[in-house]
Amino acid sequence: RRMFPTIRVSFSGVDPEAKYIVLMDIVPVDNKRYRYAYHRSSWLVAGKADPPLPARLYVHPDSPFTGEQLLKQMVSFEKVKLTNNELDQHGHIILNSMHKYQPRVHIIKKKDHTASLLNLKSEEFRTFIFPETVFTAVTAYQNQLV
């Protein structure tokens, strides 16, 4: 399923002449499992987290962007798909249901001489975390009002 609401970001301070790759990943916030308490209309800790699933990076399909493009437009991650299927072969981001997650956006300044990303450690990159984007992954709506 596609993630909702969609993560959308804008960038400043980039070199208009350089090329950039924009990625997103989603990491666990803690080592807890949650349940939704209908009578309280709130999330409660329900125990220890399930083992973490394989981490996947989602490379924005329009990457690489020029710095000029990034300065002019919003980058939207509307095509990101999430799944709880550990055997997923489609490149979706795999999450455990009823666990809390934090999306992270990464921007990598691409070196001219590299055709692809070979080694992230040799690239210039920044990671951005927005605390207001923390969410609990679910397979069904947990609120009776929805």
Automatic annotation (TrEMBL):
Keywords: DNA-binding, Nucleus, Transcription, Transcription regulation
InterPro entries: p53-like_TF_DNA-bd_sf, T-box_DNA-bd, T-box_sf, TF_T-box, TF_T-box_CS
Keyword Transcription listed: yes
GO cellular component terms, A-Z: chromatin; nucleus
MF term (GO), any: RNA polymerase II cis-regulatory region sequence-specific DNA binding
Coarse class of the protein's main subcellular location: nucleus
Domain T-box: 1-146
Pfam families named among the record's database cross-references: T-box
Database matches in PANTHER family: T-BOX PROTEIN-RELATED, T-BOX TRANSCRIPTION FACTOR TBX20
Protein name as annotated: T-box transcription factor TBX20
Organism this protein belongs to: Balearica regulorum gibbericeps (East African grey crowned-crane)
